[in-house]
Amino acid sequence: MIKKPEILSPAGDMECLNSAINFGADAVFLAGKMFGMRSAPQNFDNTQLKQACELAHGRGVKVYVTCNILPRNRELDALPDFLSYAQECGVDAFIIADLGVLEAAERYAPKVARHISTQAGVTNYASANVLYNMGASRVVLAREIPLDEIAEMRAKIPKDLEIECFVHGAMCVSFSGRCLISSYMTGRDANHGDCAQPCRWKYHLFEENREGQYFPVEETDEGTYLYNSRDLCMIEHIPELVKAGISSFKIEGRAKSAYYTAVTTNAYRHAVDDYFNEGENFVLKPWITEELDKISHREYNTGFYFNHEPGQVTGNGGYIRHYDAVAVCEKSIDDTTSLISQRNKFIVGDTLDVLPPSGIPFNVKCISLMNEDGEFVESAPHPTQRLTMKSDAPIPKGSVIRKKRL
Asked: In Å, how far are 245, 248, 276 from 1, measured between CA atoms?
């Protein structure tokens, strides 16, 4: 019998953690203030890490902590205390790229499972078996591996060695995310979580004897973004992912918003559940695909899963944005009244798109807004402002409220 894969969601801060839990994640991956491959998010200090474990475990959700930088000598002295403290907090696994960190985790936090990061570049069953013998319980495969090779790997590794693969989110132009372009151009070390994303920049050629003359490498009138990878989206290929033997479906995005976490977690949760409920009669519901167009994203692609390279977005380095998250429902007062926390501007009379914790989106009309002073207002212009909103349908607590861009 095929085991249902885990939905693994990103949590860059406590708000994202709550979104992941509320919208159906089986596990979350997050970082402490050290040793994680994302420095842009807020991440979790020691107190918050303990709180995160308590909150997640209270809802049956596992917590994986990223220890996936490639550390320098000067950083190693702080590693034992961090690993020991994370074990005390009850984290379920470390995500590790470096062999020295792998050995330290076994020594200083032996009760915590050890997952091998995609940064380690695991591309074959021989490497996976060696890492299993070194104590790994899971390998996060390099994103370059197609489904047929994943299935072969599944057949040639121990049954209790889990396979985790990315199914959604931004892709790095470099092999398994190991990149030196940022360090070279800006001094910001991508392998320590501080990437400046120069792969998203616009480039031209410059000939040394023609100072000041730039030659665009053109595919469009706007120039070419040579390294700008498309975003991965495998929502339409759940059966193939499951049949390849993948244990955990990982959603990229620890530097992204709670709204992104909510939408992506919800979409993959429903798609996987529907597939296991419907079996060979499974047909992906159109609203699930539509949900992933309601978040900021680059052009979607299936990555390397089907033996062809995804290609680059050559016309621009930006995002596609069709919707804005405008509010979160803090409390449902009655069938027509909600207490909301505003995120982006909207006005009375707008048609709003609601994503409730049940995960099935629906539309409401904003009939009126009242501020905290009891005054009726025509718009919600101030971020995090709390307002009382009347609508033509009830909005459940925890719902994300969106507005389509014109």
From this structure: 11, 16, 11
DSSP, residue by residue, 92-137 = -EEEE--HHHHHHHHHH-TTSEEEE-GGG---SHHHHHHHHHTT-S
Is pLDDT of 299 > 70? yes
Q: Tell me what pLDDT residue 21 has.
A: 97
Q: What is 6-174+230-301's CATH topology?
A: TIM Barrel (3.20.20)
Q: Which fold would CATH assign to domain 323-404? A: Elongation Factor Tu (Ef-tu); domain 3 (2.40.30)
Can you tell me whether residue 292 is helix, strand or coil? coil
Of the candidates 120, 113, 156, the residue with the CA atom closest to the CA atom of residue 138: 113
CB 194 within 8 A of CB 278: no
- Amino acid letter at 263? V
Token pair 């621009």 in the structure block, residue: 316
pTM passes above 0.70: yes
d(C-alpha 49, C-alpha 69), whole Å: 18
178 and 188 Cβ atoms separated by less than 8 Å: no
Segment 390-396 mean pLDDT: 96
Q: Across the strands, what pairs with 139?
A: 116, 163
| Intervals of CATH 2.40.30.10 along the chain | 323-404
Contact 219, 163 (CB under 8 A): no
Strands 300-301 and 204-206 turn out to be unpaired
What's 401's DSSP letter? E
Q: What is the Cα–Cα distance from 232 to 198, expressed in whole angstroms?
A: 19
Enumerate the CATH 3.20.20.70 domain ranges in the chain, comma separated: 6-174+230-301
CA distances (Å), 373 to each of 76, 103, 202, in order?
53, 58, 48
> Looking at residue 207, what is its pLDDT?
64
